[in-house]
């Protein structure tokens, strides 16, 4: 409407000069040179790989922004229901290669860069990861954004723009040391600062009660500490579509700059104190994976993020001037774990306190809006906040939580009169001293759907942490499963170009990138000689690439013809890297006892580890030390003639994963049954033709169902046996598994250095009741490893398995997962982007 009012001459200028960011090679080269000279203030004489990266990134960014604008315009005009994905973590990794692929610029930019004197590979390698996440949960959010964009959904992500991402890991004397990840050191071309989009977020203060003009009792929160939230937008382009969605990351900034009067009085530190406290809020990502930290700053982060995001969502909704009752028809909000649960309370506060909606109507709107994904049943990961802390920081929210709880428990009491135990178990408030707010309970009560992330996990949450909710809500009402997925664009096409090319050549087109079920078409080539040859060649070249990377990062030289056995993920007791390294010791000492002739028949192995331990997680850090101590001994023992090598690759992150995963022959996903909610790297490995050695846990089970018995090595006790086994460790004298005892003896004998260092680790098995049941699974683990060795000797058989693995992985595309969420939980429809003229 506004445009129509402009004079013709103005429109003509836009028509003439706008939109010259076309996708051809020449236009790209022109952009590149313009960015070198203007954005970077450099010239042909002083442009290195890094500047070439920056110039390329800025040229791609221009094109991204164009699509981003078109998408936002289309969505605003369509005014259809949107989904908002609230996640404290988005583990995006690098963006350039992905943007080139998704925008269809790869060939033209590749050639363009080459003619300008650079190799695209080197250029891509300059980018630092956006590592705003810990592990699976954060990476899942990134895969889901890719699929939302690709499937044309009108979606937004909301998160925090941490100044420091997950720490960088280095090794010193075999120990992990942490270094800050100051990823914004150079400018970040993948964000659009929206310095005009600012939300004031308040903390602390008090609540006033008053009577409004209708005679209703109302409450008003007077926060006393105001921090500004500034938006930084990260465009996420879909693959093969114009849709380019947005992740809005909030950065904290002081409302007032420093206190000049104090400054003038000479109190310099006090003068800038407020400013520093405000900036602290989004300074750093908490580096814990599957562990709750009860720090006030973390709670502040959560509210800061939730308040800014809801303000933004509500502002957008209000533009349409619809009545509040339509809110859930326009807005779906997905809570990625309990971290954003305060959003439930904040929306209720906005509706009741600020907009004057009656409590019950507001609550109906709230519960129809939110849905909640649970990612863990580990007790130490459950979020609980002390009531006094919440009360102090967010006094009005605490009142609302008490009211939500009261009304909820009144309903429970009606349905189950006099069942006080049930009330206590269901309560959002844990009646301890001090009291705690159970965030998972708040999330369940405030959402219309609750989902687990794999079938087993979704069943387990109904039997454990949410058992009592099932008694109240009934079995099929709120609770659902949505098995996780991964994006095949990044995790096959980008990470494994050779295999991707083979698949495209074989299937005749790239449609499989948008419909992963089409990989099934590979099955008819499983006996095709030429196809098999190329399949093996792709794997081998990935192994060579990894071999070089291992040499570069660790100095360890490994043979790319050996079996590559990989375990890369966060280091955690429940993931049992400890069991893996104990198995390595067993293998090593078995090899040592063999004669040279016996050893000649043995499959050579390279055992590869990678992963970060939370900085305060002592036992996990000891596991890293043990791995490195074992590696030191094994790798330098000539008597075993290269039959075994061990490498711990430092600083595992998304980009490193892209190198490691395509190179694996077997990967280990060996969590204690019932502890790994899903796992997603398991999917990535199998999609890339790597086999799995795994426990009957998380998504391993569904992968097994899809790829069949012949193509996976499963072992260990089952989830339903775990309680009994733990009980036995606690109350009965369970004799130690003899093979494990032998390994413990080896460590204690000092074979891998001063054994006193490892005593606390060994104690978890012997004195600590072996909570993760390593001793119970050890023998079947060794047996499964034997089967792996045998199977690998049959080269042709292994190739067949590898092909069938990939071919059957269609289910695990994040596109499938997102489609299920869209249909069953969010009730949203795709909105294809209409290409606009630049005006
Ligand atoms: C992971 N959780 C699960 N949490 O462990 C994994 O099984 C699952 O596949 C994945 O989510 C995706 O569903 C996870 O990564 C965290 O890192 C949290 C970070 C914030 C603090 C609490 C743990």
UniProtKB/TrEMBL annotation:
What is the protein's known function? Allosteric enzyme that catalyzes the rate-limiting step in glycogen catabolism, the phosphorolytic cleavage of glycogen to produce glucose-1-phosphate, and plays a central role in maintaining cellular and organismal glucose homeostasis.
Q: What is this protein called?
A: Alpha-1,4 glucan phosphorylase
GO MF, one annotated term = pyridoxal phosphate binding
Q: Name one GO biological process term.
A: glycogen catabolic process
Q: Which reaction does it catalyse?
A: [(1->4)-alpha-D-glucosyl](n) + phosphate = [(1->4)-alpha-D-glucosyl](n-1) + alpha-D-glucose 1-phosphate
Q: Keyword annotations for this protein?
A: Allosteric enzyme, Carbohydrate metabolism, Glycosyltransferase, Pyridoxal phosphate, Transferase
Q: What class of enzyme is it?
A: transferase
Q: Tell me which residues bear N6-(pyridoxal phosphate)lysine.
A: 684
Q: Which cofactor does it need?
A: pyridoxal 5'-phosphate
Q: Which family does it belong to?
A: Belongs to the glycogen phosphorylase family.
- EC numbers listed for it are 2.4.1.1
Write out the GO cellular component annotations: cytoplasm
Q: What is the lineage of its organism?
A: Eukaryota, Fungi, Fungi incertae sedis, Mucoromycota, Glomeromycotina
Under CDD domains, the record lists: GT35_Glycogen_Phosphorylase
Pfam families linked: Phosphorylase
């Amino acid at each position: 409407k506004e445009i129509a009012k402009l004079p013709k001459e103005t429109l003509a200028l836009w028509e003439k000069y706008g939109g010259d960011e076309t996708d051809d090679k020449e236009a790209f080269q022109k952009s590149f040179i313009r960015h070198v000279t203007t954005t970077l203030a450099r010239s042909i004489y002083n442009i290195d790989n890094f500047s070439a990266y920056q110039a390329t990134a800025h040229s791609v960014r221009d094109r991204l922004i164009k699509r981003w604008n078109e998408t936002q315009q289309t969505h605003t005009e369509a005014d259809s229901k949107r989904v908002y994905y609230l996640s404290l973590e988005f583990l995006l990794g690098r963006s350039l290669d992905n943007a080139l692929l998704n925008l269809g610029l790869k060939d033209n930019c590749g050639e363009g860069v080459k003619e300008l004197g650079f190799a695209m590979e080197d250029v891509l390698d300059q980018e630092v990861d956006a590592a705003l996440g810990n592990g699976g949960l954060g990476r899942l959010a990134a895969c889901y954004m890719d699929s939302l964009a690709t499937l044309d959904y009108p979606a937004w992500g909301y998160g925090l723009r941490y100044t420091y991402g997950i720490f960088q890991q280095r090794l010193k004397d075999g120990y992990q040391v942490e270094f800050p990840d100051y990823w914004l050191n150079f400018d970040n071309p993948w964000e659009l600062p929206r310095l005009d989009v600012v939300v004031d977020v308040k903390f602390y203060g008090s609540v006033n009660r008053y009577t409004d003009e209708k005679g209703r009792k109302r409450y008003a929160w007077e926060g006393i500490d105001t921090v500004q939230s500034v938006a930084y937008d990260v465009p996420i382009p879909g693959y093969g579509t114009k849709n380019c969605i947005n992740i809005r990351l909030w950065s904290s900034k002081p409302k007032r700059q420093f206190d000049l009067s104090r400054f003038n009085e000479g109190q310099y530190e006090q003068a800038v104190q407020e400013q520093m406290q405000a900036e602290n809020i989004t300074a750093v990502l908490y580096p814990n994976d599957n562990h709750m930290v009860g720090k006030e700053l973390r709670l502040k982060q959560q509210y800061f993020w939730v308040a800014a995001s809801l303000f933004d969502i509500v502002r957008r909704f209000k533009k349409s001037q619809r009545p509040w009752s339509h809110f859930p028809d326009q807005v779906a909000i997905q809570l990625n774990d309990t971290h954003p649960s305060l959003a439930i309370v904040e929306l209720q506060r906005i509706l009741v306190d600020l907009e004057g909606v009656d409590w019950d109507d507001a609550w109906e709107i709230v519960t129809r809006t939110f849905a909640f994904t649970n990612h863990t049943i580990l007790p130490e990961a459950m979020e609980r906040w002390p009531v006094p802390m919440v009360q102090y920081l967010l006094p009005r929210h605490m009142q609302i939580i008490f009211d939500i709880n009261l009304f909820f428990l009144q309903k429970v009491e009606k349905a189950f009169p006099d069942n006080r135990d049930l009330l206590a178990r269901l309560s959002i408030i844990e009646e301890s001293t001090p009291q705690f707010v159970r965030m998972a309970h708040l999330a369940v009560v405030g959402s219309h759907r609750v989902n687990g992330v794999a079938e087993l996990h979704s069943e387990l949450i109904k039997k454990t942490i949410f058992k009592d909710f099932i008694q109240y809500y009934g079995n099929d009402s709120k609770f659902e499963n949505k098995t996780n997925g991964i994006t095949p664009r990044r995790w096959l096409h980008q990470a494994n170009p050779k295999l991707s090319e083979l698949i495209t050549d074989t299937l005749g087109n790239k449609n499989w990138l948008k419909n992963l079920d089409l990989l099934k078409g590979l099955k008819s080539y499983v006996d095709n000689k030429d196809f098999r040859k190329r399949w093996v060649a792709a794997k081998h070249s990935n192994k060579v690439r990894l071999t070089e990377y291992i040499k570069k990062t660790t100095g360890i030289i490994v043979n790319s013809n050996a079996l590559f056995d990989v375990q890369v993920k966060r280091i955690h007791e429940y993931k049992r890297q400890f069991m893996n390294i104990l198995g390595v010791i067993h293998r090593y000492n078995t090899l040592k006892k063999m004669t040279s002739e016996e050893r000649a028949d043995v499959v050579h192995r390279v055992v590869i580890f990678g992963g970060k331990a939370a900085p305060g997680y002592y036992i996990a850090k000891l596991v890293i030390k043990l791995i490195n101590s074992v590696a030191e001994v094994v790798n330098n023992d000539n008597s075993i003639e290269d039959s075994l090598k061990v490498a711990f690759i430092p600083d595992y992150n998304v980009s490193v994963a892209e190198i490691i995963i395509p190179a694996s022959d077997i990967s280990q996903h060996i969590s204690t049954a019932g502890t790994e909610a899903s796992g997603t790297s398991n999917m990535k490995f199998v999609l890339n033709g790597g086999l799995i050695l795994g426990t009957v846990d998380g998504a391993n089970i569904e992968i097994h169902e899809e790829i069949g018995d012949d193509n996976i090595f499963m072992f260990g006790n089952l989830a339903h046996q775990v309680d009994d086994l733990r009980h036995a460790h606690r109350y009965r004298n369970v004799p130690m598994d003899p093979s494990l005892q032998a390994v413990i003896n080896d460590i204690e004998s000092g074979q891998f250095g001063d054994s006193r260092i490892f005593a606390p680790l060994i104690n978890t098995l012997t004195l600590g009741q072996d909570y993760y049941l390593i001793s119970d699974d050890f023998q079947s683990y060794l047996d499964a490893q034997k089967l792996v060795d045998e199977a690998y000797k049959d080269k042709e058989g292994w190739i067949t398995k590898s092909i069938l693995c990939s071919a059957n992985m269609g289910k695990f595309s994040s596109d499938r997962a997102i489609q299920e969420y869209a249909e069953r939980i969010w009730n949203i429809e795709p909105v294809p982007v209409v290409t606009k003229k630049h005006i």
